[in-house]
Design goal:
Layout: H1 4-13, H2 21-33, H3 36-52, E1 54-55, E2 62-63, H4 69-72, E3 77-84, H5 87-96, E4 101-105, H6 123-132, E5 137-140, H7 146-159, E6 164-167, H8 183-191, E7 194-195
The protein binds zinc ion.
Residues 56, 58-59, 61, 67-68, 70-71 line the site of zinc ion.
């Protein structure tokens, strides 16, 4: 149906999250209609982002520098660390403009079914960070699911000897994703955080 190079482009686009066959076709045909220079800029942006963006060595958020902008920002409160599963959650929480502390990105949640145990996540670095630094509060902001709950309880137990551990109050249903919550809901969840039992 498609000439092979076009079929390959559609096939690759279709691997992106949220892109079905129809959208992939539409995007591919759109790309072919654009001037060559514009297409080169797009391709270059993809390759450079992949090459240059790594993880912050302190909080594991996406960063082109060895330490990210949030960690380097002297106006942010060093005494509070908000623990999230993914960099997408940092972006969602930053959009609320309600949070002025630091973050720690775990890189996922504990999920034995998928072969993800605590050692696959950035948990030991978090414990080191909290035990070595004076941290007044750690806020656990992990999306509510069975795996998220396991992760919250596991991380909470490890950190309790060192600091106050709270969790955000979700008005979200089980399985609700932090990333899809609107800013008001997220801000409220953050504000209504409670000490972890
Ligand atoms: Zn950082």
């Amino acid at each position: 149906m498609f000439t092979p190079p076009l079929a390959r482009l559609i096939e690759q686009l279709q691997r992106l999250p949220g892109v079905g066959p129809k959208t992939a076709q539409r995007l591919a045909l759109h790309i072919l209609k654009r001037p060559e220079e514009e297409v080169n800029t797009l391709a270059k942006a993809i390759i450079e982002a992949k090459k240059q963006v790594g993880l912050c060595q302190v909080c594991f958020h996406l960063s082109a520098e060895s330490v990210c902008e949030i960690c380097r920002n002297p106006n942010r409160n060093n005494n509070i660390i908000c623990v999230v599963a993914d960099s997408r959650d940092v972006i969602a929480l930053e959009k609320t403009r309600e949070y002025g502390g630091k973050y720690h990105v775990l890189g996922g949640v504990i999920s034995p079914m998928d072969g993800i145990g605590p050692e696959q996540l950035n948990i030991s670095a978090l414990v080191r960070r909290v035990s070595q630094q004076k941290v007044q509060e750690v806020i656990l902001a992990i999306s509510p699911s069975v795996e998220g709950e396991t992760t919250t309880l596991y991380v909470g137990q490890l950190l309790k000897p060192f600091t106050l551990v709270t969790r955000i109050a979700f008005g979200l249903p089980m399985g609700g994703d932090l990333e899809y919550a609107d800013e008001v809901t997220l801000a409220r969840a953050l504000e209504g955080r409670r000490e972890l039992d």
